[in-house]
Design goal:
This protein is of the alpha+beta class. It has a domain at 7-40. It contains one helix and two strands, in the order E-H-E. The protein has a two-stranded antiparallel ribbon with strand order 1-2. It is rod-shaped and about 55 Å long.
Length: 51
């Protein structure tokens, strides 16, 4: 069975500020808290016995 989450995912976290950004790219930039890339590898499942 293949892992449905396998692949490369981009993560972004923003500060919780209810103010509108509008067309101001600088305001949007300052809301960005963190970002990263998360990679999930598709590995085969191993058969295991339930005791």
């Amino acid at each position: 069975m293949s892992n449905p989450f396998a692949g490369t995912w981009t993560y972004r976290s923003f500060l919780n500020d209810p103010g509108l950004v509008g067309d101001d790219k600088d305001k949007l930039y300052h809301l960005l808290f963190a970002e990263g890339v998360w990679t999930v590898e598709d590995t085969p499942l191993q058969d295991s016995e339930v005791c």
